Amino acid sequence: MPRHLAVGVVLLASISSAFALDLPTRKAGLWELKMEFQGRNLPTQLMQECTDAATDRLMTSNFGGAPEHNCQKRDVRNSGETITVDSVCTFGDATTTSHAVVSGDFSSAYTVQVESTRQGGRPIPGAGPGGQTHMTIVAKWLGPCVAGQKPGDVMMGNGMKMNVLDVQRMGGPSGRQ
Questions:
Q1: Does the pLDDT at position 52 exceed 50?
Q2: Does the pTM of the predicted model rise above 0.90?
Q3: Considering the domain boundaries, does residue 175 fall inside one?
Q4: What is the phi/psi pair of residue 14, to 5°?
Q5: What residues make up the domain containing 156?
Q6: Domain count, the chain
Q7: Is the dihedral of CA 100, 135, 176, 59 positive or negative?
């Protein structure tokens, strides 16, 4: 897998890896996601995702955080158009404590704010010392997917394109061989 594609997969995984929950299904079509990382040596990332109900559920389940058996704590509170998640999850010898707030609606625009602290484990590329990160995702619905796009297509800001179904078949998240 080319390095830029691998970085893209890591970014997809980080979209909601700090929390694992059943988010509402987004409106089918083309979504733009702008990801800003504070406390990490990474530039703002811009991507677009072409979704339908099935691929949106796949993206949420495959790239949407830790399986339940990895989390010692997962508190989810839903209040109107705001979902708050506090979690503590362990992966190998690393433990991540996260607080996430998802606000807005899944038919036009939403924002995700994630604060995480990671202890132990191997260093994460671009992460600063102390294991604290803050990520903001601003997502907005752009309209129908454009000609030549199919559900599951993810277009990175650097021009790279991949499809989450292909990543799964190649042994990516939940498709490991």
A1: yes
A2: no
A3: no
A4: -80, -10
A5: 3-169
A6: 1
A7: positive
